Automatic annotation (TrEMBL):
It comes from Chaetoceros tenuissimus. This is Psedouridylate synthase. The lineage of its organism: Eukaryota, Sar, Stramenopiles, Ochrophyta, Bacillariophyta. One of its GO terms (biological process) is enzyme-directed rRNA pseudouridine synthesis. GO terms for molecular function: pseudouridine synthase activity; RNA binding. Keywords: Signal. Residues 73-248 form the Pseudouridine synthase RsuA/RluA-like domain.
Amino acid sequence: MRLTLIASVLLAAVNVDAFAPVNTGRSVTSLQSTVEATDFNSKLEASLAKMAARDAESKISADDLKVVFEDEHIVVVDKPAGVLCVPNKDNNPSLSQAVFDKFGSESGRADKMVVHRLGMDTSGLVVFARTEDALRGMNTAFRTRSVTRTYEALACGSIEEAEGTINLPLMRDYEFPPYMRVSTDEHQKALIGLSVEDVGKKLLERPKESLTKFTVVGKEELEGNAVTRVSLTSISGRTHQLNVHLAAYGHPIVGDQVYGINGEAAANGGLEAGTSASSASADLQESIASAAKSMCVHAKTISFEHPVTEEKLSFESAAPF
């Protein structure tokens, strides 16, 4: 059975009208935000401090790199989990710096090699550019969505559908900044009256249409707990999209300490309950969280046209879980 969560379903189930202006019968200027800017900024500061402490645990050097492909223009490496893709403001060890240290670049700058990135706790394939031509070509390929990527993950519980599509718009979460959540009318209205000066630009961006396709690879167990191995394709490529969508679906990614059970972000992607009929129970999620040693999501495949030679390239990396 193919599951597709489409706009009509969303409107009935969670009252989402994320892409239309809010219309409440009153002028926008007469509405007051339910968000207190000082409370939001205090929460944001605390979360960023916690993230900075976590970033400080990143460790990698040029000798640690697992190189999948390299030529004079690009390098493809297999990133381990627990490593920053790019340095933070404290310049903690990162994958991009390790690649620069080993291979160098035409520009003489590590930041000019970065064309995409993975989250710190996500493992898998990452491409870096060594030349200006490669940088321009790869940036264009990602911007035009000419790069095909699939991820593999373990999801909590037993997903009944063989495949499906999760179509849920995303927004920044004012209750749990700087994380993401599914956008609803209620949470959009809560932002009315706020300004960029109050809370910054990102929180006030329009909801982002977000689409994730999944295919069940197999049913497994983690220390006696039911989990499902899934192949994931992020069509829209939003921030934390796979994590939020699977949590909202009711089958959060195993080991996800942000969007999973008792995580730092809103439960169920910000919805009252998971949208799947087979949503993993809270007890099951708790048991899996106790058994998980790390977050189980991996960038498994990547295919693209070489930015200079135009050769069609495709790479695959086995998931470490």
